[in-house]
């Protein structure tokens, strides 16, 4: 009796036209990556379902099969062609980036793109109506495929983007011509230059999609298209002024100025290449399509793009570490997090976990700190464009817990109290007896060895480090810190938890500073040394920015907090034979006075409303400043590899890029060192050591790796 009610309440199945679920099984496929069938109205339903992949990507094999299918349809034209994904997660997330690495020369790329463009044009030229049905993400080549269709119907929740610029490229399957021809060219260019994602309602407003629907209405929408009841205005009046050369030149000048400020062309050539392409050929879509091929082929073979493609795979490698399906035993997901300490880090960690859908209880001895955390989460929801209803649900996830009672029910108890060994031990003594037997005890410490923190615990095997970076909502990397008695099951569950909250885990060993702080500290300390020698903070930071860093070391120190930097430097100086110079008295006095950087409004720089205020200095830093800043960081990275703080150089490169913003177009610090030559790095360090002191002494790892 209740079965019909339950069936009605169940989620609506995907609208797949004439296909039954049984027909989508691998054994029934005629094509490896596509399903094709006509319904009673002679509408051909073509479903993309890339074999052995959780998401659809446009590989060479996928496109080759699509070309064969389009040729077959042309010989027996259907009443309409519907293209959609058979995978529930998304429509298509773009090109198969792994194949980019196989294209070694520009002629190779050009040949592939010419074939792909001919296929896209065949879809455009079909005499029957073509309809793309989009759910989930339509990105890069996936969106470009949809742009070849006459109509685009989207399911609520769909997202759209052309993120190729993040790989040092621009769209290569006709997007540079078709997107500005469909919507406001300025918006189209901004989407391509920024790589940002557009959500369903905005896409509808822009005219990127023709109808935004619930899944249950898609069948009727396709029927309405066939009946001629869906009228679409393709005139794109906003594009008309930009057919004039002088109008495009003026707009291109402004675009170049803005793009150069965010992505210097000497490091990131793709934005300028795209602007040049549109400026010269934006009045002729056919010419844009033609020139797009050659521009894309050139960009793909630049060092910037090759390294950014490398960074894409570094991210995938780190992301895979948190995939529970990869391990022998699937750890239970974390559903309730209890955070102890609602300060700058703890409050933000709790808010981020709540934003990701976890239940979070937050304890602090000061109730006002919990209130501040709730306010910051509200602001974060606004920044993330959450609706009022979504914001309410997210805030409901965050439970103020002044009684600290969440300890007893949490799957993960995360301590984020001040960096004081005795304070942390008191917290553990209080909470450990009340924790669930299988719960994880985690610390967000940035500098205290876990071997010290585990002393006194009844079950030291459950203790792990889960070290976030500031600001929590922006920094993608989280260090998962192991110690010799940590249980593998606790580490696996902690790593999976990092993936649950949409962050990248970096497994590291408990060692002074772990990885990121160990590598960053010599870089920051050298910047202080240069400041002591009379260089301006602005000139020092500019050297790092010119190298490709998102900000200079002194601005970064202010961002992190001078008190945190000082504490880590003191710890490393005490625990490592690194010859770090003593911290100058003026810096200690700053910290004592509460001039801690961004969080206090004053540090090395002055800060207002969270933004740094710098003075203009004409005098530049002397030659050799870049080497003095960066080589100590590379030296520390090599030491971490040699000491096995982290497993391999690729993981190290990914961790440094996603935790510090190390110039992505250089592929990571160890990759950059490899390009310089390990022998050359060691020689430069030795030269600096003789000139400036033993803090530059080359790590033994340089010689060992070079010999290998």
UniProtKB/TrEMBL annotation:
Family: Belongs to the 3-hydroxyacyl-CoA dehydrogenase family.
Lineage, highest ranks first: Bacteria, Pseudomonadati, Pseudomonadota, Gammaproteobacteria, Pseudomonadales
UniProt keywords, alphabetically: Fatty acid metabolism, Lipid degradation, Lipid metabolism, Lyase, Multifunctional enzyme, NAD, Oxidoreductase
Pathway: Lipid metabolism; fatty acid beta-oxidation
Gene3D superfamilies xref list: 2-enoyl-CoA Hydratase, Chain A, domain 1, N-(1-d-carboxylethyl)-l-norvaline Dehydrogenase, domain 2, NAD(P)-binding Rossmann-like Domain
Species the sequence originates in: Halopseudomonas sabulinigri
Catalytic activity from the UniProt record: a (3S)-3-hydroxyacyl-CoA + NAD(+) = a 3-oxoacyl-CoA + NADH + H(+)
Record Pfam families: 3HCDH, 3HCDH_N, ECH_1
Top-level EC class as recorded in UniProt: lyase
Xref: PANTHER family: TRIFUNCTIONAL ENZYME SUBUNIT ALPHA, TRIFUNCTIONAL ENZYME SUBUNIT ALPHA, MITOCHONDRIAL
Name of protein: enoyl-CoA hydratase
């Amino acid at each position: 009796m209740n079965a019909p009610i339950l069936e009605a309440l169940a989620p609506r199945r995907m609208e797949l036209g004439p296909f039954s679920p049984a027909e989508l099984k691998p054994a029934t496929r005629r094509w490896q990556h596509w399903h094709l069938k006509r319904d009673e109205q002679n509408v051909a339903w073509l479903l993309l379902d890339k074999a052995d992949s959780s998401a659809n990507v446009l590989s060479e094999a996928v496109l080759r099969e699509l070309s064969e299918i389009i040729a077959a349809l042309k010989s027996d034209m259907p009443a309409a062609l519907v293209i959609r994904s058979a995978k529930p997660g998304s429509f298509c997330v773009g090109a198969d980036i792994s194949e980019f690495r196989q294209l070694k020369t520009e002629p190779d790329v050009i040949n592939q793109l010419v074939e792909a463009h001919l296929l896209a044009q065949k879809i455009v030229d079909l005499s029957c109506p073509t309809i793309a049905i989009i759910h989930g993400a339509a990105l890069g080549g996936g969106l470009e495929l949809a742009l070849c269709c006459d109509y685009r119907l989207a399911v609520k929740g769909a997202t759209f983007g052309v993120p190729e610029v993040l790989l040092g490229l621009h769209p290569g399957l006709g997007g540079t011509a078709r997107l500005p021809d469909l919507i406001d060219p300025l918006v189209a260019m901004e989407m391509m230059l920024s790589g940002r994602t557009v959500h369903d309602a905005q896409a509808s407003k822009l005219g990127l999609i023709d109808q935004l629907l619930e899944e249950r209405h898609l069948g009727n929408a396709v029927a309405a298209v066939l009946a001629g009841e869906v009228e679409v205005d393709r005139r794109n009046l906003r594009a008309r002024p930009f057919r004039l050369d002088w109008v495009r030149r003026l707009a291109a000048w402004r675009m170049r100025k803005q793009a150069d400020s965010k992505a210097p062309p000497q490091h990131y050539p793709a934005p300028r290449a795209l602007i040049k392409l549109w400026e010269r050929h934006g009045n002729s879509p056919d010419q844009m399509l033609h020139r797009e091929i050659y521009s894309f082929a050139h960009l793909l073979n630049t060092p910037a793009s090759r390294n950014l493609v490398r960074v894409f795979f570094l991210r995938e490698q780190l992301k895979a570490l948190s995939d529970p399906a990869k391990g022998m035993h699937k750890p239970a997901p974390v559903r309730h997090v209890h955070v102890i300490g609602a300060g700058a880090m703890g409050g933000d960690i709790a808010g981020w976990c709540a934003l990701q859908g976890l239940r979070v209880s937050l304890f602090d001895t000061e109730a006002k700190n919990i209130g501040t955390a709730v306010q910051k989460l509200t602001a974060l929801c606004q920044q993330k464009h959450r609706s009022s209803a979504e914001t309410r649900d997210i805030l409901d996830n965050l439970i103020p817990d002044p009684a600290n009672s969440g300890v007893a029910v949490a799957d993960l108890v995360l301590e984020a109290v001040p960096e004081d060994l005795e304070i942390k031990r008191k917290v553990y003594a209080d909470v450990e007896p009340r924790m669930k037997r299988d719960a994880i005890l985690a610390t967000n410490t940035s500098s205290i060895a876990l071997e010290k923190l585990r002393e006194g615990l009844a079950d030291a095997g459950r203790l792990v480090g889960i070290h976030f970076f500031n600001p929590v909502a922006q920094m993608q990397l989280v260090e998962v810190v192991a110690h010799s008695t940590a249980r593998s099951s606790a580490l696996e569950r902690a790593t999976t938890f990092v993936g649950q909250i949409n962050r990248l885990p970096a497994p590291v060993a408990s060692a002074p500073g772990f990885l990121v702080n160990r590598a960053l500290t010599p870089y920051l300390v050298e910047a202080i040394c240069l400041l002591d020698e009379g260089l301006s903070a602005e000139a020092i930071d500019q050297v790092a920015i010119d190298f490709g860093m998102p900000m200079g070391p002194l601005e970064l120190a202010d961002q992190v907090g001078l008190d945190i930097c000082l504490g880590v430097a003191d710890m490393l100086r005490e625990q490592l034979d690194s010859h770090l110079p003593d911290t100058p008295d003026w810096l200690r006095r700053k910290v004592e006075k509460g001039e801690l950087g961004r969080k206090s409004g004053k540090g090395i720089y002055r800060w207002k409303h969270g933004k740094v205020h710098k003075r203009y200095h004409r005098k530049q830093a002397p030659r050799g400043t870049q080497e003095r800043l960066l080589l100590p960081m590379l030296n520390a990275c090599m030491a971490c590899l040699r000491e096995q703080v982290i497993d391999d150089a690729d993981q190290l490169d990914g961790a440094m890029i996603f935790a510090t913003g190390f110039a992505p177009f250089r592929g990571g610090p160890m990759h950059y060192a490899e390009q310089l030559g390990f022998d050359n790095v060691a020689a430069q360090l030795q030269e600096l050591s003789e000139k400036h002191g033993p803090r530059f002494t080359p790590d033994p790892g340089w010689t060992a790796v070079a010999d290998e």
